[in-house]
Specification:
mainly beta; Metal Binding Protein, Guanine Nucleotide Exchange Factor, Chain A
């Protein structure tokens, strides 16, 4: 999939997706399609198709949302959250809201957890990636 650089090329979002990605909402814990996804592949930004994470970076955190202990280089930006307590993560390409990043929980050797809304991403299985190359 081509990464959309211009806002006019962004994917059309459902009202639920726009609530999360544009309005910085959060899906209810335990409701996301990718929370327990164990398939190999790549997670893309739902709005612009920017590759964000790989399945190797995903882990079970039991927090209610998909969790990753790293991102693809340059894929995610960190910004102070409006609440002043957390760090928001957004797509580095379109600045769509993904979720929040946490440090100091010691859930993985990297000691980092990207807590991401499933509705902010599209999963592309490795089989589809291989067929396009």
């Amino acid at each position: 999939m081509k990464v959309a650089k211009d806002p006019s090329e962004y994917n059309k979002l459902t009202p639920e997706e726009a609530y999360i990605i544009v309005n910085k909402g959060t899906e209810y814990p335990g409701t996301g399609a990718y929370e327990h996804n164990k398939a190999e592949g790549v997670y893309l930004c739902k709005r612009c198709n920017n590759p964000l994470y790989t399945s190797e970076q995903k882990f079970e955190s039991h927090c209610g949302w998909p969790s990753f202990d790293d991102e693809l280089p340059g894929a995610v930006k960190r910004v102070p959250d409006a609440d002043g307590r957390r760090i928001e993560i957004v797509c580095a390409n379109c600045e769509g809201h993904l979720g929040h990043v946490f440090q100091g929980e010691y859930l993985t050797p990297k000691n980092l957890r990207h807590c991401v809304n499933s509705l902010s991403m599209t999963f592309v299985p490795v089989e589809e990636l291989e067929s396009k190359s």
